[in-house]
Amino acid sequence: MSKGKIHPFLRLTQLVKEYDANKESYDVNKLQLLSEELSINLFYMSDSASTALSNYDFAEHERKTKMADREQYYHSQLGSNGKAMTVAEAGNLARIDCKEEVERCKETLRQKKRVEIILSSVSQILNSLSTRIAITRT
Q: CA 65 → CA 72, 77, 94, 120, 135, distances in Å?
């Protein structure tokens, strides 16, 4: 992104706030320009959005892989009673070891859900704008 240009997510937020505050005063031309700018910024954020969506899948894969590895490791160890650890004991210790990966998953899931909500909301706003433009033109 070039210097001085704001991120498309931020620009979408600005546009939605402006529209929310001034929607009753917008004429057809202003509605059409807003619709176009929203659409353009959706296009420009595609790389960031796809990264946010795929980051969760990658973090979840890493968490599951480490969890399986740690469970297998602990299951082959002896417990405090001198016997092999149970599956439940190995799972509990693995969860403790994977706390960082779980936290990363939670954060990437939050980002993924935020992107999904923004995409859905902007799509709904674009549909609303289209309806308002059509009504205003008739």
A: 11, 19, 11, 32, 54
